[in-house]
Write a structure and sequence with these properties.
The complex is a heterodimer.
Chain A (H helix, E strand, L loop, with lengths): L3 E7 L2 E7 L5 H8 L18 E4 L2 E4 L12 E3 L12 H9 L8 H14 L5 H7 L11 H21 L1
Parallel strand pairs in A: 1-5
Antiparallel strand pairs in A: 1-2, 3-4, 3-5
Helix pairs in contact in A: 2-5
Chain B lengths: L17 H5 L15 E7 L5 E7 L1 H5 L3 E5 L1 H6 L5 E2 L11 E2 L6 E2 L5 E7 L2 H10 L1 E6 L6 H4 L15 E8 L4 H6 L2 E9 L11 E6 L6 E5 L4 H12 L6 E4 L15 H13 L3 E4 L2 H7 L6 E9 L5 E13 L8 H8 L9 E10 L13 H19 L3 H8 L8 E2 L5 E2 L4 H11 L5 H10 L3 E10 L7 H7 L7 E7 L5 E5 L8 H13 L7 E5 L17 H28 L7 E3 L2 E4 L2 E4 H10 L12 E6 L8 E11 L4 E12 L6 H20 L30 E6 L21 H13 L12 H11 L4
Helix pairs in contact in B: 7-8, 10-11, 11-12, 11-20, 16-17, 19-20
Classes of the chains: A alpha+beta, B alpha+beta.
Chain lengths: ~160, ~775
């Protein structure tokens, strides 16, 4: 099969590899870039475990080909916080027991971070809708919803101060 | 001295597992890619039943990048033998299963050949090139069809399609039924489910250079048990195989059993001397791993005129699929044994039969017989209340085992340990404002909605039982746990246990237990290593049956107490006091106003430089625990629902769960286990169903068809705790991993009956919108 050399920017670092046209973006991220924080749960776009951000918007990396992401900017869970400190959302998941097995967690974080950035108001209903495309089989979602509310409270004063 | 640290047990400390998982730095099987890995892909049968005439692998082998394509005869040539079933009953027709199909296929998705290739893409391409020659046979797609005397036999040399049977209880006195004031005779059925951990099954086996040894990272719930079962099927001594459980992405019972794919991955790594990796995809998980729960009850109940249940008798027909998994008909047996639930019923006779059908094999799933039993008995209780025109809680109250009757021996031989079932019921009624429901029903009516309230009470055997009792029941493993604790020279402790963790926070809770005994900080001074069949102490059964906090928790406590005794002895020498006067707290040994840092004691013990006379160097203790009996967490849940009559859609508007889980090691972890189990129970009540057509083709091979609940279907769950410590367990813990999953389906069924009036369909799960829509019409006398 013909190979293409592509470069994808992941977490502000360029990753270059020779790939088949059929290679999934999720495989490129996990195997070619070695960033295994992005997990694959269903390979057909339902469970949301493989969610990453493409140019800031959440996408399912199992439903995209790597070549479709060439020249674009991908952010994975490893890039959620650019310091040794947790992102407030990660910290809130820790505090609220927002994870159990942790397999779905990176997908939830990458879906929720843009929701929190863009939502005018964080509400329980809004949170539940924001994660309607992410399946967690462990928590029953309640502690995830709680974590987002904790994180929203944590992040609000900071945003106010910036204004 | 600084402020005293709070006790760790009973506090919702942050989980030790979470930082790595939140940063994407967890270590799941698929995350490792050793150089030279061969990727395994299984070729699976496309029809439900047929003779396998020929498998032609030539075109597949010829594909560049393919290393090997093997069938069951190839595996036998390199020494593999069939996989042993771990729990067998007398006269069971199958006690071992083939690693790959040989002359017949019995379900869609049964593995027939394995491809090894340089990449998974190539392996899957090659799988398409394996040619199967099959002669179709009629498919048996339900347990009731399987026991028809004229049914096609899945195994031609058996007398019928019954794999095994077990009768719980004694022969029920027929006179009790003939003379009883009230008798009920009902049928119940539960649909097929899939446990559906987000991480499917996975194995990576690596041959160790310079030896014949193999190290395997497997997504399993029981590392030691897996190493024993896999090594045996490979024809190896157990010592040749080291099984490690890294981070595991959910198990829920599915990963309790050892599967043929695990065996083949290890076998081929050893044979070819290269790493072999097998990562199951979702379709394989839904068709080729194991399903669960599908069964049919036919039960008679006898009661007196006051609603006191006198006797239960009947049949349980369990759909086992094409062959047993490692747990055999164990869950059918437990379902029959637990039909009496939390009630005092003197006569019980339930015959459970496991029947083979042309469907994916049935395996363990969270609850393991408990939910099957709870659905039947909790519907029966409500039907009895209806007959007597009594409130449903009153009938429960009249039949509960009473606090002064513990330990209570049930008619089927279970010994319930402790509790106050009525107190849980009363709390659930109060928290749900059960008495005020009619007003809420009227309010809903004004909006055109049908509102109902329903309850279910339950008791869940947890933590297995004593190893000798298990041997008598026919299992291949016991129930002991050994925990080792070592201290380093800086006074920190490393806790080693063979159990694995699939999200239950076992690292955290074991650290909490040890922290209090040793006076250490659980988050900074204790690390926990789990799940390694050669480097951690023996775990007989791993993380199954809600047993880790109970059994490994008790072993950890006992090991920590032995280590504490040694530290007290050393500290007594340092401070010139009696060892019994020494208290360990805040990382110090304290006695009579004096203190010595534990780190100083540890250094003395490890170097052997400054030890009191008679104290041997070294600071490492192990303890083994085997309980005299299991534990019996219990509770009552109340579900309040609203039904949209135009669509049949159910919304759960409130869900109250009252549970007694004994002593809570970490309340946040306990609540997470309960809420997660309730969410799975709601999924099984409303959404999830593995469906087959009449040819045995599976209709739900993706998550677009097999509907797992999302955040939009699961309501906020309100949890309340009672606390009766398990009297026979050091630490007083009862199991908590499974107890939450028993009540949701019967509570919702009873709420449906409350909302609509009784309809036969309320005895048959699940309650999808079309089913509920039909139910509304049936209740109205339409259709």
């Amino acid at each position: 099969m013909t190979l293409s050399t592509i470069t994808i920017d992941i977490n502000d670092q360029a990753y270059r590899a020779e790939v088949e046209p059929r290679r999934l973006l999720s495989d490129f991220i996990r195997e070619d870039a070695g960033l295994t924080g992005t997990h694959v749960g269903c390979e057909h776009g339902v469970c949301g475990a493989c969610t990453v951000q493409l140019d800031g918007a959440p996408v399912r990396s199992c439903l995209m080909l790597a070549i479709q992401a060439e020249g674009r900017s991908v952010r994975t869970v490893e890039g959620l916080s650019d310091s040794p400190e947790f992102h407030p959302l990660q910290k809130a998941f820790l505090d609220a027991h927002g994870l159990q097995c942790g397999y779905c967690t990176p997908g939830f974080l990458m879906s929720l971070e843009p929701y929190m950035r863009d939502a005018d108001e964080i509400s329980e209903q809004g949170i539940r809708e924001a994660i309607a495309g992410n399946i967690c089989r462990c928590t029953g979602y309640q502690s995830i919803v709680d974590a987002v509310q904790i994180a929203a409270n944590e992040m609000r004063p900071q945003e106010d101060a910036e204004r | 001295m600084s402020a005293h640290r709070d006790r760790a047990v009973g506090r919702s400390i942050a989980r030790l597992e979470d930082p790595r998982l939140l940063r994407g730095e967890g270590n799941f099987v698929a995350d490792q890619n050793p150089t030279g890995t061969l990727h395994a892909h299984f070729v699976r049968g496309p029809i439900a039943h047929g003779n396998l005439v020929n498998v032609n692998c030539e075109r597949a082998i010829a594909l560049p990048g393919v290393h090997a394509v093997l069938t069951v005869s190839d595996l036998a040539q390199i020494g593999a033998i069939p996989l042993k079933v771990g729990w067998n009953h007398p006269d069971q027709q199958i006690t071992e299963t083939e690693l790959l199909a040989s002359d017949r296929v019995r379900w869609v998705g049964q593995a027939i050949a394995v491809v090894l290739a340089d990449s998974l893409y190539i392996a899957e391409d090659a799988g398409e090139l394996v040619e199967l020659e099959l002669e179709p046979l009629p498919a048996i797609t339900s347990a009731s069809a399987a026991i028809d005397p004229d049914a096609t036999k899945l195994y031609p040399d058996w007398p019928d399609n019954v794999l095994a049977e077990y009768t719980a209880g004694d022969v029920a006195n027929p006179g009790l039924f003939a003379e009883a004031a009230i008798t009920l005779h009902e049928q119940f059925s539960i649909q097929r489910l899939a446990a559906s951990p987000l991480e499917g099954r996975a194995a990576l086996a690596v041959a160790q250079p310079g030896s014949d040894r193999v190290t395997a990272w497997i997504s399993t719930q029981a590392a030691h048990h897996a190493s024993e079962v896999i090594a045996e099927a490979c024809g190896w001594p157990t010592s040749r195989l080291r099984v490690i459980t890294p981070d595991v992405g959910g198990g829920f019972g599915l990963k309790e059993a050892v599967f043929a794919e695990d065996v083949i991955t290890c076998l081929l790594a050893g044979h070819f001397g290269r790493p072999v990796k097998w990562i199951e995809d979702r379709r394989e998980n839904l068709i080729g791993s194991a399903h669960c729960r599908q069964c049919e009850w036919d039960i008679e109940l006898a009661a007196d005129q006051d609603g006191r249940i006198l006797a239960l008798r009947g049949d349980l027909l369990y759909d086992m699929g094409g062959e047993p998994t490692g747990v055999g008909i164990g869950f059918a047996r437990v379902a029959a044994e637990m039909l009496g639930g939390p009630y005092r019923i003197e006569s019980v006779e339930v015959k459970a039969r496991g029947v083979v059908t042309n469907k994916t094999p049935a395996g363990a799933y969270r609850g393991y017989g408990g939910p099957e039993a709870a659905f039947a008995i909790e519907r029966l209780i409500d039907l009895l209340a209806l007959r007597l025109n009594l409130p449903p809680h009153e009938v429960r109250r009249r039949n509960f085992v009473q606090p002064d009757q513990f330990p209570y021996s049930s008619a089927s031989g279970m010994v319930y340990d402790s509790g106050n079932y009525e107190e849980a019921l009363d709390l659930a009624l109060a928290r749900s404002d059960f008495a005020g429901f009619e007003r809420r029903r009227e309010e809903a009516q004004k909006l055109g909605l049908l509102r109902g309230i329903g309850m279910a009470s339950f008791v869940k055997p947890s933590g297995l039982t004593n190893s000798r009792i298990m041997a008598g029941a026919g299992t291949d493993h016991g129930n002991s746990e050994t925990v080792t604790i070592r201290m380093t020279a800086d006074g920190a402790a490393t806790v080693l246990s063979g159990v694995s963790s699939q999200g239950q926070g076992h690292e955290t809770i074991l650290a909490q237990v040890c922290a209090d005994v040793l006076g250490l900080d659980p988050e900074r001074e204790i690390s926990v290593l789990l799940g390694d069949s050669q480097m951690t102490p023996y775990s007989s059964a791993g993380a199954i049956n809600s047993r880790v906090a109970i059994i490994a928790g008790a072993a950890a406590r006992l090991a920590a107490e032995e280590l504490r005794a040694k530290l007290q002895l050393i500290a007594a020498g340092f401070m010139d006091v009696a060892p019994t006067a020494v208290v360990l707290a805040d990382s110090q040994a304290v006695a009579g106003g004096k203190s010595v840092p534990i780190a100083q004691l540890a250094k003395a013990a490890l170097t052997g430089f400054e030890l009191p006379d008679g104290v041997e160097p070294g600071l490492e203790q192990s303890a083994t625990y085997d309980p005299p009996n299991g534990t019996f967490p219990y509770g009552t849940h109340v579900a309040e629902i609203e039904i949209e009559p135009g669509s049949g859609a159910i919304e759960i508007v409130r869900y109250i769960a009252v549970n007694d889980s004994g002593i809570l090691l970490n309340p946040a972890i306990v609540n997470g286990q309960l809420i997660g189990a309730i969410a799975q129970g709601i999924g099984g009540a409303l959404l999830e169903e593995i469906a087959y057509d009449s040819n045995g083709q599976i209709q739900t091979a993706s998550l677009m068809d097999y509907l797992l609940p999302t955040a939009c279907e699961i309501p906020r769950i309100e949890i309340e705790h009672l606390c009766t410590p398990a009297p026979h367990i050091p630490g007083g813990v009862k199991g908590v991993g499974e107890s939450g999953i028993l009540a949701p389906a019967p509570a919702i069924a009873n709420a449906l009956a409350n909302a609509l009036g009784p309809v036969e369909a309320q005895n048959h799960l699940p309650f999808s919108p079309p089913v509920v829509w039909e139910m509304i019409r049936a209740a109205d006398g339409i259709g």
